[in-house]
Amino acid sequence: MARYFSTFIPGLGEVVQAELKRKLPDLKVELLVDGLVVYETEASIEEVSALRFLNNSFYVFHFFKKVEPNSLVGMMKFVYNSDFLKKMSVPRVKSRDRSFRVITSYQNKLRAVELNVLKNAEEKIAKATRLTLDRSKPDLEFWFLERSEGIGFFALRLTYDRRSEKDLERGELRPELCNLLCILSEPQEDDVFLDPFSGTGAILRERMQIAYSKLFVGEKDKDKFECLKTRFHKNDVEVFQADATKLPLGDDSVNKIVTDPPWGQAEEVEAETLYKGMFAEFSRVLRRGGVLVLLTSQKDIVEEFLKESSDFSLDARYDVLVSGRKAGVFKIRRI
């Protein structure tokens, strides 16, 4: 079995582990900490790389299970001073793997090391792999990582952020988080799905990667609505312009809702007023037994509502950080 490590949205480790086990039946989890999982599987690199709910995944050559702080250089010297590289087998990641570079990371941030140490690592890796050094646009990246949890890795990067922060529109959620929100909704191929606060369509984009029957997409803002119509022009996707407290849908018309309401105030409407009207509509359109997954900064309002509600029950809650802001993910069931 090959060893991998992957990073994910902190706070959702339970969801990630369950989905990994579902996708990779032979999975053996070696370590799970907040935001990172180390595991073994016979699955191919292509299968691991295709897991959309993970931020980045790496093929692990060596797992340093216990390191002291500032051991990054020591890890590098261990790799290139021993016969480790001679025994190392580099898997094929791309159809053309001819060049490489070395990346060094300390506690989740890139960190430079002494030039002679870097050059030694580059020369030894080049000799062992017969790859050509290219520090600007390589085919492959070999990473030395020292983590804050007191562990380290020498690994090959398999994936890159599907969309970097600069590619995201203002307020747009990362695709990995959207994918996890959709997974929490227990997706089925006969789902009639709703996102009434669609914005840029980030959640919808990920839900379309999973089989469904019908998708309803709501957005109050006229400009965003027009963009959504252009982006998601499909027969089984219906885009409408409406307030989430007055949805143009029939009673019991959907069985899954995944959404990210405005954070704080929206167009001078108080959060409590917005959520009261929103939940009233969700109670009307969501079928009994249906699932609502809600990402929100208004955790107290949601909890108070659920305490008093006879229409909804809380299945699970997860505390997460979104762009540095505290938020909650609520999995709620219509009863």
UniProtKB/TrEMBL annotation:
One of its GO terms (molecular function) is nucleic acid binding. One of its GO terms (biological process) is tRNA methylation. It comes from the Bacteria. Pfam families: UPF0020. Residues 166-211, 235-310 form the Ribosomal RNA large subunit methyltransferase K/L-like methyltransferase domain. PROSITE patterns: N6_MTASE (PS00092). InterPro entries: DNA_methylase_N6_adenine_CS, RlmKL-like_Mtase, SAM-dependent_MTases_sf. CDD domains: AdoMet_MTases (cd02440). This is Ribosomal RNA large subunit methyltransferase K/L-like methyltransferase domain-containing protein. It comes from Candidatus Blackburnbacteria bacterium RIFCSPHIGHO2_02_FULL_44_20.
